[in-house]
Structures are given as C-alpha cells and as structure tokens.
Request: fold
Amino acid sequence: MWGIFLESVVIFKNYMGYHENHFLVGIYLFALLYLWLVERDKRRRAVFVYAPTLILLVFFCPLFRKVFVRIMEDSETYYRLLWLLQMSIVSAYGLIKLMGRHMRIGLLAACLMVVACGDYVYDSEHISRAENAWHLPQEAVDIVDMIKPEEGRITVLVPADLIYYIRQYSTDIELPYGREMLVSRWDYYNAMYEAMEAAEVIDTPLFVELTREYPCAYVVLKEDRKIKEPLTDYGFSVYGQVGEFVIYKDMTL
Reply:
C-alpha cells in the first residue's frame, strides 16, 4: 500500500509540474487552506473546499487506486482525476477572497505569488514567436497557398513536421494520414506513413504506387530526404520549393 501511495505522490508532482515550477501547486494549496479557515457560505464551501479536499484524499488513497485500475483496466489515466480539482477556479476564488478581506496585503501577496509562478514562455523549446496571424509556421502557410485548388479539395502528402499545421490553415487540403500516426503508443499502421517516414531511404516505385492509390496530387519532401530514385523519373515534376521543403506535382493526375 505504501508503494501505491508513493506512486500517487509522483503522479501528483508530475501533474502539478512540481519539478519545473512548484509555485502553482503552492498557490492552490494555500487558497484551499485559506478557504477552509474563512469561507462561511455552505454552498461555496461545498464547491471550493469540501469537493477538492475529498478528491485529494481519494486520489492518494491506495485502496481507491487499486479499485480504479481494476475497474478501468488502465493505470495511465489515473492522473485525470486531478482534473476535478479545478485548480484555476479554487486558486482564483481563494486569492480574491484574500484580497476582499485584506485589500493591500492580500493584493500584494496575490501579485507576488502570480509573479513567482510565472515563466518567460519563449524559454520553452515547445513555444516560439508567432510568424503570422494564424500562429502557424510560415512555411506551412506558404506551401498551402502555393498548391491549394481554386475549388474542391486535393490530397497532399507532407512530412510529419507539417501534419499538425496544414489542415489548421486550410480544409481544402486532405492528408493520407493524420496525427494518429505520430503517437507511438496508439500503434496505428499506415502503409503510406511507413513508406514516407519509417523507411530510411524511400523506395521510389512502392512510394509512387501508394501516393497514386489515394491519389496525392502533390508530394512534399524535405530537400535532404533520402530517396532511391528521383520522383521526376516517375511522372512528377518539381512544382516549387519553400524553405527546406520541395513540392512535387504528380503530372499523371
């Protein structure tokens, strides 16, 4: 039981981002404790005090976790119970309550806590400055603008780097596969994806056969992508290039 409890503690820390920034969980627990002491309205106590506290107690209970995993047959989703804590609502209400009772000190404390838990967002490797109004990589926008039809829809094969962005910008572009292929634990199989991404060197004859089964009006490849034989030997022509991406058009379609 102790081992299960410690696993729940690790899940809680990871969910709260404790290893990177423990101030958020600190603000939440401070707000929850403060509301325990000062909130008198019964309905608000039920929402902002009793419910979160009960969820926390249940989450860390080893017996409950054993029952949850057995019924759900899935231990990976146990962290989703923490979604019920409503951290933002409880934290915001607790800090507002503090400021309402102690205007100057409460305001100063709330501001200091918010500043302390903040980070410069562009320090993250997952966030970059917006290049355009759509907040998408400009290369994806330029590629779509170059190939999208005046009417109707077309199917286009693009590298995995662009899958997330192409259809955000235009639904006139259809893809042979989507983000389901990029999540390894989902274990999907798609022959076109295997030929495009999994192969160290693209097998041109098989690759071309698969693109025409969909059919793909355009194929976008990185200029350094290894390919057994040039696509231009199989009825494709170089339509254009955007950055490192070379756009091929199937002239047989």
Summary: Residues 138-250 form one domain. The beta strands are 154-157, 173-174, 218-222, 236-242, 245-250.
